[in-house]
Design goal:
The complex is a heterotrimer of chains A (362), B (300) and C (272).
Chain A lengths: L1 E10 L2 E11 L4 E5 L6 H9 L6 E6 L2 E2 L10 E4 L11 H11 L4 H14 L15 H13 L5 E5 L7 H18 L2 E6 L2 H7 L2 E6 L2 E6 L1 H6 L4 H6 L4 E7 L7 E5 L3 E5 L12 E6 L5 E3 L9 E13 L3 E8 L4 E7 L14 E7 L4 E4 L1
Parallel strand pairs in A: 3-8, 3-9, 6-7, 7-8
Antiparallel strand pairs in A: 1-2, 1-4, 4-5, 9-10, 11-12, 11-14, 12-13, 14-20, 15-19, 16-17, 16-19, 17-18
Helix pairs in contact in A: 2-3, 2-4, 3-4
Chain B lengths: L1 H32 L3 H4 L12 H11 L3 H8 L1 H34 L2 H16 L2 H12 L4 H8 L13 H25 L3 H9 L4 H29 L3 H6 L7 H11 L3 H28 L6
Helix pairs in contact in B: 1-14, 4-14, 5-9, 5-11, 6-9, 7-9, 9-11, 10-11, 11-14, 13-14
Chain C lengths: L6 H24 L16 H8 L1 H34 L6 H13 L2 H14 L6 H25 L3 H9 L4 H30 L2 H6 L7 H9 L5 H39 L3
Classes of the chains: A alpha+beta (362), B mainly alpha (300), C mainly alpha (272).
């Protein structure tokens, strides 16, 4: 539906976006995720028409958008910090785009009522923006950007201005609205949790390039490279060397000549002796005081607990192995913290299954 | 295409206005300051018209000379007037700072709900006529004025003081007129000093006096500098105050220019005086500009 | 800065504001003096006000001054706002450095120089000096002040509001008119007010650029003041002070209310 074709955006000598191609489909909830300055906002502003494309082109339903000003594009945007017009009340804010499009007064009123109902703000039509809470402003901004029935809605850090609790509620509200209207939503965010929660697909960006595009679970479990793995969630990245490549399970060596069995993905093209990086998420590692039972598909190592960080639902253990490697492992706090069996300086066993880790390029 | 022309139109309108009524007049001043006194004196006929074209321009250029400037240097009156203006401006700035600082400090420390009212009270006299404010001092300072009456009644003096039509009256007038310009930036920089900094200083062993000199004063320096320029720059070219409060001996450069133009009708010299005045002002103005850019956003 | 407010501070404020207001207060008090001797109190009277109001020369000058002030302030506000937009929004264009120089220079230019240069221009192009030349002169320096006032407001203006309007179908021009202009209106108003008072107050530039039959009130006042203190001038001054002070007070009260509202609005619009 939306296609970025070899899009490059340069400001003078600085290249914000370099030769980027991307397809976004009808009805998707698509996230552009990356640290600040990675070019994600530029992508959105190019799509909305606020920035021109230096080279390449952007197509919407096969129509080239190049040179089309923002007011002509069937795309609307919900701005970071909402950009509600402070001198207009809620109803006039929502009806603003309709007025520009020369709708009849009665039609505007009907549409505004419809939008107010959609975001459950019927009782606030006459309020000025400064009389609203952050969450209410967000809903008005959403209603305003949906009033013109755009084909695509762009959301620029839509929840950044809200506090954590409200943010979670609003995420579900957004997903609900998107689901009901069947629109394409494109959201720009630096919050990986937010991206994981709301989107059907995520594009991870860095320095004006796409690092990986895929479903949230794919990006989390099978990151394309170390940067993506590290950007999304906690991770242990271990340098490994492939020892043997035959069979469903293969051996790799890591640390001080330690051996590990892993279950490679079919697409991993591995050759013996290759240096790779192993992605091992902390929550996939089990921590125990007793040595776990041996099994052909279980890896286990022994080390000393250096640090425990307790964040309520889970605790993260920093375990120093005997050869000096530091591994982070996470355990759900099934017991009360006062009954915790493992303490600082305890010797513990870490164990994980062969299928729990992923091999990526170094 | 239409967008481009709207944009150029928006730029062109104020641009052309300023070219026409600021830059060209200024160039005329430069030109006349370089012309002979005779040709420039009224009835003044423009030596240079557009019809003359380049040849005319060249002819006019070759007629230019520095006679008026030579005259300024040779006649000691002008040099004295420039130096005196600088002196008056410098002393007035210093006095304004000494009076203005405690007031700005008091305003910054006043309870929050008073501050906007105090600020309004400070700006209010600035909005009332400049002339009236100077006029008010004539009534106070003249020999049978309110000040002498009060001092005589209090038996502090036996004879009325002669203040009006002296340099002292000029200082009073300038300080009085420009005090708000000193206080405003001072207040702005003092007001934004975080009170916790002073608490921290005292917590680390400073007395309150020493905390003032080591924390408050250095942090208020941008305001001190901005305020000083805001008094110093206009004071140099001041005309009304020395004219109304000063004596005939008080020749500041603004007044000299005025007299040269309206009394002596020597346009060439008046223009040369103006050019030299601007050249004197350039240094403080550039310094001020630098300072403002550096502290942009720090002061209102 | 919020620490204890002590006696020293109170004394400084009392003396400071006393110094600022006492001279004006004396003028006001003695405008109600019955005696012609300005420093001797001869009982309360408002007769000098009647004298001033009956003086046709003063009234004529006041009328001219008001017309010039209103006209030049309006023009200066339009040009100043335009110029602020040029400075903040137009990015770079040929001659931008010269332009910003020309906007800031009149602010620091001594009045005598501005007056002289404009006079020489008017002589050079052979315009009869009078009402219009004073107005042009006032527009020229007021527009720079107006530009500074509007520029500083425009710089803090949240551009995403304009982007939002364009996203919802406005052309850039229409977005500016519908969104930006209403929001910066208080600044535009204060630019007008500032230009108005600058024009009302100006003596030096008006003297240079005026001609026969266009004597402004400050010029009239100046020639009277040179002759010394008189109860008529006290009365006239009191009226002027009264008009300007009440104007400024009303404007600042309105502005303060608007600003408070605006502050709420902007705070609410950007809950960072």
């Amino acid at each position: 539906m939306i296609r970025f074709e070899n899009v490059t955006k340069a400001y003078g000598s600085f290249t914000a976006i370099s030769d980027l191609s991307l397809d976004i489909h009808q009805g998707e909830f698509f996230s552009l995720l990356g640290p600040s300055g990675c070019g994600k906002s530029t992508m959105m502003r190019m799509l909305a028409g606020f920035e021109s494309v230096t080279s390449g082109r952007i197509l919407l339903d096969g129509v080239d958008l190049t040179g089309m000003p923002p007011n002509r594009r069937p795309i609307n945007m919900m701005f970071q910090s909402f950009a509600l017009f402070p001198h207009m009340n809620v109803a006039r804010n929502i009806g603003f785009g309709l007025k520009q499009a020369r709708w009849r007064k009665r039609d505007i009123a009907d549409r505004v009522d419809e939008m107010l109902a959609l975001v459950q703000m019927e009782n606030f039509a006459d309020r000025k923006p400064h009389q609203l809470s952050g969450g209410q402003m967000q809903r008005v901004a959403l209603a305003r950007s949906l009033a013109l029935k755009p084909k695509v809605l762009l959301l620029d850090e839509p929840l950044g201005a809200l506090d954590k609790k409200l943010r979670e509620e609003t995420q579900f509200q957004l997903m609900d609205v998107q689901d009901r209207l069947g629109l394409t939503f494109i959201i720009v965010t630096h919050d990986q949790e937010e991206a994981m929660t709301v989107s059907s697909r995520i594009a991870v960006m860095k320095d004006g390039k796409l690092l990986q595009v895929g479903e949230p679970s794919r990006i989390y479990e099978h990151p394309a490279n170390a940067y993506v793995a590290d950007f999304i969630g906690n991770v242990n990245l271990l340098p490994v060397r492939i020892s043997a490549t035959d069979g469903e399970l293969i051996d790799v060596t890591w640390g001080n000549g330690r051996n590990m069995v892993i279950r490679p993905q079919p697409e991993d093209r591995l050759s013996a002796g290759a240096q790779k990086t192993l992605v091992l998420r902390p929550e996939k590692i089990h921590v125990s005081k007793e040595r776990p039972e041996e099994a052909f598909n279980i890896n286990m190592v022994e080390g000393v607990v250096e640090e425990i960080s307790y964040i309520g639902s889970v605790s993260t253990f920093h375990v120093r192995l005997d050869d000096g490697v530091l591994i982070r492992a996470q355990e759900a706090n099934r017991l009360l913290a006062s009954r915790r069996e493992i303490d600082w300086d305890d010797r513990v066993w870490l164990s994980w299954r062969a299928g729990a880790c992923v091999i990526i390029e170094s | 295409m239409r967008k481009v022309s709207l944009r150029s139109l928006m730029i062109a309108v104020p641009y052309v206005w300023l070219l026409l009524f600021f830059l060209i007049p200024f160039l005329i001043v430069v030109k006349i300051s370089l012309s002979d006194s005779i040709t420039a004196s009224p009835p003044y006929t423009p030596q240079l018209t557009v019809q003359d074209g380049l040849a005319g321009l060249w002819a006019a250029l070759s007629e230019f000379d520095f006679e008026n400037y030579v005259w300024l240097i040779e006649d000691g009156v002008y040099l004295k007037a420039y130096l005196f203006s600088l002196k008056v401006a410098a002393i007035s700035t210093l006095v304004s700072l000494l009076i203005g600082y405690p007031i700005a400090y008091g305003m910054a420390k006043a309870p929050k709900r008073w501050r906007s009212t105090l600020l309004l009270l400070l700006i209010l006299p600035f909005w009332t006529s400049f002339l009236i404010r100077i006029y008010a001092w004539i009534g106070i300072l003249k020999s049978e004025g309110y000040l002498n009456i009060a001092l005589l009644k209090l038996r502090l003096i036996n004879e009325p003081l002669n203040i009006l039509y002296t340099d002292a009256a000029v200082y009073i007038g300038i300080v009085y007129s420009y005090l708000p310009f000193m206080i405003l930036p001072l207040y702005a920089s003092l007001e934004r000093i975080d009170g916790r900094l002073l608490e921290a200083a005292e917590d680390l062993g400073c007395g309150s006096v020493s905390a003032f000199w080591q924390v408050t004063f250095p942090l208020s320096l941008p305001g001190v500098i901005a305020g000083s320029f805001l008094v110093f720059i206009p004071a140099i070219g001041e005309f009304v105050i020395p004219d109304l409060l000063g004596g005939s001996a008080t020749l500041m450069i603004g007044k000299t220019l005025w007299l040269e133009f309206f009394a002596n009708r020597d346009w060439g010299v008046a223009s040369a005086v103006a050019i030299v005045l601007l050249m004197i002002l350039i240094v403080p103005i550039v310094l001020f500009q630098r300072h403002q850019q550096k502290h942009q956003g720090e002061l209102g | 800065m919020n620490r204890r407010f002590n006696t020293f501070n109170l004394t400084a404020l009392t003396f400071g504001f006393g110094f600022l207001y006492l001279p004006l207060l004396l003028v006001i008090i003695f405008s109600f003096n019955d005696s012609r001797l300005v420093t001797v109190w001869g009982g309360f009277s408002t007769k000098w006000y009647a004298v001033v109001l009956a003086n046709e020369a003063y009234m004529e000058a006041a009328w001219i001054t008001l017309r010039i002030a209103a006209l030049s302030a309006s023009l200066a506000t339009v040009l100043g706002t335009l110029s602020a937009v040029v400075m903040v929004r137009m990015g770079s264009f040929p001659g931008r450095t010269l332009y910003s120089g020309m906007i800031y220079a009149p602010l620091v230019m001594p009045e005598v120089v501005t007056g002289l240069s404009l006079l020489l221009l008017f002589v050079a192009i052979g315009i009869d000096r009078g009402f219009w030349t004073i107005t042009i002169a006032h527009v020229t320096f007021s527009m720079c002040y107006a530009s500074v006032v509007v520029t500083s407001r425009l710089r803090t203006f949240d551009r995403s509001l304009e982007d939002a309007a364009r996203d919802l179908g406005c052309s850039p021009f229409s977005a500016f008119c519908q969104i930006t202009l209403p929001i910066i209106a208080p600044a535009v108003m204060s630019a007008w007010l500032l230009s108005f008072t600058l024009s009302l107050d100006d003596l030096v530039i008006a003297t240079f650029t005026s001609g026969p039959g266009s004597t402004t009130l400050p010029m009239k006042l100046y020639s009277s003041v040179r002759l010394g203190v008189s109860p008529e001038i006290n009365a006239l001054s009191t009226m002027l002070i009264g008009i300007v002070a009440s104007g400024v007070l009303i404007a600042s009260l309105v502005n303060r209310r608007q600003e408070r509202r605006l502050e709420n609005e902007t705070r609410a619009a950007a809950p960072a």
